[in-house]
Structures are given as structure tokens and as C-alpha cells.
Amino acid sequence: MSGRFLVLDGPSGVGKTTVTALLADLLAEDGWDVHRTKEPTHTQLGETARYGTDDYHGLTLACLVTADRYQHLETEIRPALAAAKLVICDRYLATSLVLQRLDGVDGEFIWALNQYVDRPDLTIILTGDPTRSRARAAARGIHSRFHRGGPGAGQQERERYAEVAVELAEAGFPVHLHDIGEQTPNEVAAELLIQVKLVLGTACGQQPTGEAACTNAS
Ligand SMILES: Nc1ncnc2c1ncn2[C@@H]1O[C@H](COP(=O)(O)OP(=O)(O)OP(=O)(O)O)[C@@H](O)[C@H]1O
Ligand SMILES: Cc1cn([C@H]2C[C@H](O)[C@@H](COP(=O)(O)O)O2)c(=O)[nH]c1=O
């Protein structure tokens, strides 16, 4: 039996970690056996990437985060999927396509590095007001050079994520773009639950009713 693979991605401070936790709880209440995880991982390799962005740049950082992704897939994500779990992952390929490009790496190289990664059943990209997202990330604590820069950097990141939503959809990844607007994390999670059920079906094996595509991404 094989599980399902769900990803939440988007700019720093938009609320990925908060919403991932809430959505994971809602899905568990719905009967899914949920495995929540994050990239970079909390392994030595992952923490080197997360906290090492002042030391590692460009190609080096691209290789580090992708090496962490393959290790994550091999040791955690694929075993959980093989155990029929619903894996929900905070950040994945979309982050690389946005941040590594902002770091000067060619998109073709990023795709080549990631050519053997698993395709999620659904990638949700959260976007929101960049001034608010940046302010939240700053209030929580800055641990990466990608978190620095004011609203201008946040606006650029937001635009890149919207472009990457389309890019992933064109590459055959089911994508849902969700702008949080004024929503609270609970409201975002409740709305996403509906979308997830449309695409993944229900825990008791009901077939999905929606065709996988890039929704809300224009
Ligand atoms: N919709 C929201 N409205 C108000 N505050 C929020 C919302 N979503 C998250 N927050 C708050 O913003 C802060 C950052 O949220 P969170 O860590 O979930 O963001 P993130 O996207 O995972 O950030 P990063 O990528 O930088 O780790 C937290 O303090 C969280 O409580
Ligand atoms: C998955 C991924 C991550 N990064 C970098 C960017 C930040 O330094 C951290 C993410 O930190 P947070 O705790 O989620 O805020 O990792 C990256 O450059 N590329 C990636 O693909």
C-alpha cells in the first residue's frame, strides 16, 4: 500500500510551519495516519544548510539542500509512504526553485539536481502580504540570509513563488496556490483541508473528485 505526499511551500514568515501543524491535525482527525516533516531536515546535514547560508552560497548551497532532500526521501519520506502514511512536508522543491535561483543558480541545474526526487501528490504554495510575512519572520528570529531584506525582498520572493507554481504545474506537479490575505492560520488550514480532500480523496479510500492541476495559479 502506498501513502500520499503533500507539500506546503512559500515565502519566509508566510505561515508554512504554523499551517502545516494545523492541517496535519485536521487530516489526522479525518482519519489519515499523518507524518509531519520539514526541509531542510533536522539532521546534521539539514541544519548545516538551514543555519549555514552565510557560509554556503550558490551551487554549494544548492547541492547541500538537494543532498538533504535525497537523504530525507530515502530515510524518512519513502518509508513513511510505504507504510501508507500521509506525509506532509514543510518546504520542498519549490523552495529550491525560488531561493537557489535568487542565489544565482540556473533553473536548469536545479531541475537536473532534483531529477530523481519524488513528485508530491499535491504542492500547496502559500503567499501573502510580503511586509507582514517579513515582519513575522523577523519577530520570530532570523537564522538565514534569505530572511533578511525588507518588504522589497519579500515581494520578489512572493512573485517568484507564484511563477514557480506555474512552472511546477507545467512540469506535471499538481499545485494549489493559496493567498492567505487576512486569514488566520486556522482559517487557512480549514480552507486547505477542502482542497487536499479534493485532490487526495479521503482517508477511507474515496477517490479524489478534482483533477490534479495548478489551481488558483494564473
Ligand atoms: N495567518 C497568520 N496570521 C498571523 N500570524 C501568523 C499567521 N501565520 C503564521 N503566523 C505567525 O507568524 C510567525 C511565522 O510563522 P511560521 O513560522 O509558521 O512561518 P514560516 O512560513 O514557516 O516561516 P519560515 O519559512 O521563515 O520558517 C509565527 O509566529 C506564527 O505564529
Ligand atoms: C529547503 C531549502 C531550504 N533552503 C534554506 C533557506 C533557509 O536558510 C532555510 C529554511 O529555513 P526555515 O527554517 O524554513 O526558515 O533553508 C534553501 O536554500 N533551499 C531549499 O531548497
From TrEMBL:
<keyword id="KW-0808">Transferase</keyword>
<keyword id="KW-0067">ATP-binding</keyword>
<dbReference type="InterPro" id="IPR018094">
    <property type="entry name" value="Thymidylate_kinase"/>
</dbReference>
<comment type="similarity">
    <text>Belongs to the thymidylate kinase family.</text>
</comment>
<keyword id="KW-0545">Nucleotide biosynthesis</keyword>
<feature type="domain" description="Thymidylate kinase-like">
    <location>
        <begin position="8"/>
        <end position="163"/>
    </location>
</feature>
<dbReference type="GO" id="GO:0006227">
    <property type="term" value="P:dUDP biosynthetic process"/>
</dbReference>
<dbReference type="GO" id="GO:0005524">
    <property type="term" value="F:ATP binding"/>
</dbReference>
<dbReference type="GO" id="GO:0005737">
    <property type="term" value="C:cytoplasm"/>
</dbReference>
<keyword id="KW-0547">Nucleotide-binding</keyword>
<dbReference type="InterPro" id="IPR039430">
    <property type="entry name" value="Thymidylate_kin-like_dom"/>
</dbReference>
<keyword id="KW-0418">Kinase</keyword>
<dbReference type="Pfam" id="PF02223">
    <property type="entry name" value="Thymidylate_kin"/>
</dbReference>
<dbReference type="GO" id="GO:0006235">
    <property type="term" value="P:dTTP biosynthetic process"/>
</dbReference>
<comment type="function">
    <text>Phosphorylation of dTMP to form dTDP in both de novo and salvage pathways of dTTP synthesis.</text>
</comment>
<dbReference type="GO" id="GO:0006233">
    <property type="term" value="P:dTDP biosynthetic process"/>
</dbReference>
<dbReference type="GO" id="GO:0004798">
    <property type="term" value="F:dTMP kinase activity"/>
</dbReference>
<dbReference type="InterPro" id="IPR027417">
    <property type="entry name" value="P-loop_NTPase"/>
</dbReference>
<protein>
    <recommendedName>
        <fullName>Thymidylate kinase</fullName>
        <ecNumber>2.7.4.9</ecNumber>
    </recommendedName>
</protein>
